[in-house]
Write a structure and sequence with these properties.
- With 181 residues, this protein is an alpha/beta fold.
- It is built from 5 helices and 7 strands.
- It has helices at residues 40-51, 74-85, 104-111, 121-133, 172-180, and strands spanning 7-9, 15-17, 25-31, 56-62, 90-91, 149-152, 158-162.
- The protein starts with 6 loop residues before the first strand and ends with a helix.
Amino acid sequence: MNLYDIKVLNQKDEEVSLNNYKGKVLLVINSATGCGFTPQYDAIEELYKKYKDKGFEVLDFPCNQFGHQAPGSDSEIHEFCTAKYNTTFDQFKKVDVNGENESPVFTYLKENSPKEEIHGLKNKIAMKGVSKISTTCKSENDIKWNFTKFLLDRNGKVFRRLSPIENPKLLEDDIIKLLEK
């Protein structure tokens, strides 16, 4: 499967080909508006504003699979994100990221990513606890919780997979390197 062959629905229910993002450095996230990690939107938006003119894009896929923390409609989620966090990057229709109805985007990301990075003992312990309460996490490659971050190079290859608990700013040096290639 090629990432650029996948088509998704944006939050307005319009079909979008991921081929539109070919040649861009991408940060793909699964998000939720009622999660403890939701304030990460600030750092994600900051990275987006800083590097969007250099070929960086953020693809935000809300997901309600973890603690039912994205319960609103697609338009309610979008309104919340733009009003509270001033997000300007592309947001798509709510998806499943694990299980039989998972989005092909996340199937591709999970099958083609390096091991998820979790830094520090405190974060590892916290994520181990989160994984235990995640009812959709059935295998090591599955998404553990909201705000898993996948950084992809300009060819659609997954460069890094960052745990939900990790600050998105940890990706900035790699974003810069990938943009320079």
